[in-house]
Specification:
heterodimer, A: 2 strands, 73% helix, globular, B: alpha/beta, 6-stranded mixed β-sheet, 4-stranded antiparallel β-sheet
Chain lengths: 274, 236
């Protein structure tokens, strides 16, 4: 048996890893989203309402949340097609804040007071989602489809000249990423058994991006590692009490200066291969 | 092979290309020449489906789709100005992407081997990031990648741009070699004299309008290949 403290950390890592993978998917086509917490919120509220109000089994409720988030991602993806870089980041940030405000005003899900009544999902239940999803993304990274996504990231015009449907690829990446964030949201809701709009603010979106930047954005293991590092580092620094968050920030800066490509990249993985 | 009639391209109020008609017959090298700003790149981008345009473009008797990704599948491969290399991907990954649109996916590894035999340097550097290759090597990669889509018509936009004279000569020799293999080629160039040594025919563009067409000798006789003319075109 592990302690509830360790279980809590492992659960946070599992959920944050899935959320970071959603950012990783969008980055694969060269897009940066600062609004993935909104997709997480949709997944969380959809899964919660289904499991609490309609007694839908938790895995099914989470899957339904992923579908709703995915459809929302598709809808948001269309206007996002016309934007790149910082402009897309700002637009998705706006979408994130809009979604948070929506749930803040939605009485049916408790508004600012939040929503509760969910049954807790087990730690194993969380990792039963997280591990297969990681393996799925790792397998996808070896596919022709992933190469096509990266081609769009490198040069969209060149990608079109190679016969790639860049619109479909970008929309597909946005939809899949939103669905992943929706799963993370459903798991978050059923682990904490309470959700409120503040849990899905810009801070959450920033954490997702930070996990990818810190862990590395070229392989799926990067976001996974980054999410774990973000959860564990502040805990490991507890011995310096009030200074731990400042020390954590300094540590992040040092790591990114030393490894601007993130801690894990393809070269490192090749070097570690026996 | 390629028949373009009445092609017109606009950028808002600016007419970049007007009423351009040209033809590339099977197995021909046809050059599209003109000064900087004459509309050559706009014309080939429109033909390849990268720019909206008026007029008709047919390839092997069928209308060419107006979207670039569909035009590739119809048999047109454009190596764009600047080469369009996927710099964060390896040479092998670039080549693999070159075959993305081909029907015969099972034959792609063998076709990649053919290209790596044609350009041994690409074979030697297959695992290197394409962005780290020299300009000449990138041009070879861009051409090899375009050939992997099994095109009926290869369009090269300024393939010698930024290359040393020796490398330019190698690229032009390669273009001749491709024609010898039966490939039809539309070659956009500013280096008129150099390109007319290998082209069967040429079209001269001046500020978006077709000024003349014919063989190199015919164009030279009209005084259309002089440095003064090319410079005047650039100023216009």
């Amino acid at each position: 048996m592990i302690s509830s403290y360790a279980a809590g950390l492992l659960a946070e890592i599992g959920i944050a890893s899935i959320a970071a993978l959603s950012v990783h998917l969008i980055l694969a086509v060269g897009q940066l989203s600062l609004g993935n917490a909104a997709f997480m919120a949709c997944g969380a509220y959809t899964a919660s309402v289904l499991s609490v109000e309609h007694a839908v089994p938790i895995p099914l409720a989470i899957a339904a949340g992923a579908v709703v988030s995915g459809v929302l991602g598709l809808i948001v993806g269309f206007p996002a097609l016309r934007l790149r870089g910082i402009y897309l980041a700002m637009a998705t940030l706006g979408f994130g804040e809009m979604t948070r405000s929506f749930f803040l005003s939605l009485d049916a899900t408790g508004g600012a007071a939040g929503y509760s009544g969910m049954q807790r999902v087990s730690l194993i239940g969380i990792w039963a989602w997280a591990l297969p999803l990681l393996v799925l993304v790792l397998i996808a990274e070896r596919s022709r489809l992933w190469l096509a996504l990266n081609a769009v990231r490198d040069d969209e015009t060149a990608a079109r000249l190679l016969g790639l449907n860049t619109v479909a690829l970008k929309l597909g990446a946005f939809t899949a990423a939103a669905a992943l964030a929706g799963i993370a949201g459903g798991l978050f809701a059923h682990w904490h058994i309470f959700i409120e709009p503040g849990a899905f603010s810009l801070d959450r979106s920033t954490e997702m991006v930070l996990a990818v930047v810190l862990g590395g954005s070229t392989v799926a293991l990067g976001p996974f590692f980054g999410a774990a590092a973000l959860a564990l580092a502040p805990e490991a620094l507890r011995f310096i009490a009030d200074w731990r968050l400042a020390a954590f920030g300094a540590l992040l800066i040092v790591i990114l200066l030393l490894r601007p490509q993130g801690i894990i990249d393809k070269r490192l993985l090749r070097a570690l291969k026996p | 092979m390629l028949v373009v009639q009445g092609l017109a391209v606009r950028y808002g109020p600016i007419q970049a290309v007007r009423d351009l008609s040209l033809e590339v017959r099977p197995g021909e090298i046809v050059a599209l020449i003109g000064a900087n700003g004459a509309g050559k790149t706009s014309a080939v981008k429109a033909i390849a489906g990268l720019l909206p345009h008026a007029g008709s473009v047919t390839l092997a008797g069928k209308p060419l789709p107006r979207r670039a990704e569909a035009a590739v599948r119809a048999g047109l491969a454009l190596v764009p100005e600047g080469r369009g290399i996927l710099g964060q991907m390896t040479v092998a990954e670039n080549l693999r992407m070159g075959g993305y649109a081909r029907r015969d996916q099972a034959g792609l590894p063998a076709a990649m081997d053919v290209q790596m035999r044609r350009f041994p340097i690409l074979g030697e550097r297959r695992d290197r990031l394409a962005g780290l290759l020299s300009g000449g090597e990138q041009q070879m990669l861009a051409i090899a990648r375009a050939l992997l889509s099994e095109p009926r018509l290869l369009v090269l936009d300024e393939p010698s741009l930024g290359l040393a004279p020796l490398m330019s000569a190698r690229i032009f020799a390669l273009v001749e070699e491709l024609r010898a293999g039966g490939m039809s080629i539309l070659l956009v160039e500013q280096k008129a004299r150099q390109v007319l040594k290998i082209a069967d025919r040429a079209y001269v563009l001046e500020t978006g309008t077709l000024r003349a067409s014919g063989t190199g000798a015919e164009l030279a006789a009209q005084g259309l290949l002089s440095d003064a003319f090319m410079a005047a075109g650039a100023a216009g």
